[in-house]
Amino acid sequence: MRRITRIATVGIASAALALSATACGGKKSSDASSSPSESGQKSAAIAYDIGGRGDQSFNDAAYAGLKKAETDLKIKTSEAEPTDGEGEADKVQRLTELARKGNNPVIGVGFAYAPAIKKVAPKFPDTTFGIIDDTSVTGPNIANLVFNEEQGSYLAGVAAAKVSKTGTVGFIGGVEVPLIKKFEAGFTQGVKDTNPNAKVLSAYLTQPPNFDGFAKPDLGKAAAQGQLDAGGADVVYAAAGLAGSGAIEAASAKGKWAIGVDSDQYNQAGLAKYKDSILTSVTKDVEDSVFNLIKSVEDGKPTTGEIRYGLDKDGVGLADSNPKYKEMADVIAAVEKAKADIIAKKINVKTAP
Questions:
Q1: Which residue of 104, 132, 192, 240 lies most exposed, with the fewest beta carbons within 10 A?
Q2: Residues 199 and 297 reside in one and the same domain
Q3: pLDDT tens-digit profile of 234-285?
Q4: By three-state DSSP, how is residue 294 classified?
Q5: What is the total count of domains within the chain?
Q6: Are residues 277 and 304 in the same domain?
């Protein structure tokens, strides 16, 4: 089943509703009225990763970039949602339809789109295809939007080690794949460099080809409860997309700290009731990466090849929205020093545990 939605005016409240719908196992969308080629207007499109829009994390960051392009560049935008249990053929069909409708660029949100983009991009040489978090598929009309997640996660490890009172912290990965291992590696190194005696509990929710670990909050909640109760952790960092919201809920219920991911989760409407427990978030500037690619196409100079975002370009970082975090002068000082040392290459952050 394929679903494509043209954005009209959608705010954060709609994203919150989408979160609820996803948690219940279903989503609704409306059909696009007319294609960009039919209307003569320019349009850009994104195809969401597992969890879809409303995950308060990765997909919502991509949506923010699309919405910014719609507002600032005065273009039409289209979205395509994933379906439960879909395969590569579904992704191929989704990207093909978006390209046929005249969208340019067409952006796949997440590494899972790599095989589909490899098949579809050569058939539309005049369309720029973007893929986030993947460098395995390349081509003259493909832009690889990638991030140094390990660097941002290192900073989270520094913060976690500084605030932990038990000396034990937890890491939860959605699915055990190389991308998520970058988060674990950086986080663990940051913790250990700050407190060599600290203990890091690591858990993955699912193994490929099961990607439910990015989509089901109950899995994240159960894993976090185990680390908090049996493991004695008092800080939990989850890199698990929508499933990470369950880990945040569990930490909040225990009066412990959670560290968010991808978006500044302290400011996500769907997580408002847990926000006092969100110490900080490891941010990835997915929003600007999406907007910048769309703008490059609109300017007539489409960017292709690897486009990397690291600490040196503020492409990854650590959010400071929580007022409690802003009061932690010693934590902030340690994080800022670590950031400077990484940028200066005094610290080499590992990309594998």
A1: 192
A2: no
A3: 999 999 999 999 999 999 999 999 999 999 999 999 999 999 999 999 999 9
A4: helix
A5: 2
A6: no
**Apex CA 280: angle with CA 153 and CA 189, to 5°?**
25
Decide the pairing of beta strands 76-81 and 142-147.
Answer: unpaired
Q: What is the DSSP secondary-structure string of 194-262?
A: H-TT-EEEEEEEE-TT--GGGT-HHHHHHHHHHHHHTS--SEEEEE-GGGHHHHHHHHHHTT-EEEEEE
Residue 136: CB partners within 8 Å, gap ≥ 6?
111, 114
- Structure confidence at residue 2 as a pLDDT band (50, 70, 90): very low
Q: Are 86 and 22 in contact (CB under 8 A)?
A: no
| Chain segment 203-225, per-residue pLDDT in tens | 999 999 999 999 999 999 999 99
- Within this chain, do residues 91 and 198 fall inside the same structural domain, yes or no? no
CA distance 244 to 223: 10
User: Stretch 101-114: mean pLDDT, rounded?
Assistant: 96
Token output for 23: 């948690």
Q: State the SS3 of 71-91.
A: HHHCCEEEEEECCCCCCHHHH
Instruction: Locate 214 and state its tokens.
Output: 């990015």
**Position 332, amino acid:** I
Q: Taking residues 289-307, what's their average pLDDT?
A: 97
Q: Which residues pair with 77 in a beta bridge?
A: 44
Task: Tell me if 111 sits within 8 A of 144, measured CB to CB.
Answer: no
CA distance linking residue 113 with residue 25, whole number of Å: 22
In the predicted model, is pLDDT for residue 25 greater than 90? no
Residue 179's domain comprises 149-283+322-343
Question: Residues 8-13: what's their mean pLDDT?
Answer: 32
Q: Which amino acid is at 65?
A: G
> Is 351 within a domain?
no
Provide the token pair at 133. 């978090």
Q: Residue 82's domain is classified under what CATH number?
A: 3.40.50.2300
Which amino acid, 144?
N
133 in a structural domain:
yes
Is the domain of 327 the same as that of 194?
yes
Coil, strand, or helix at residue 20? helix
Residues 265 and 300 in one domain: no
Other C-beta atoms closer than 10 Å to the C-beta of 137 total: 19
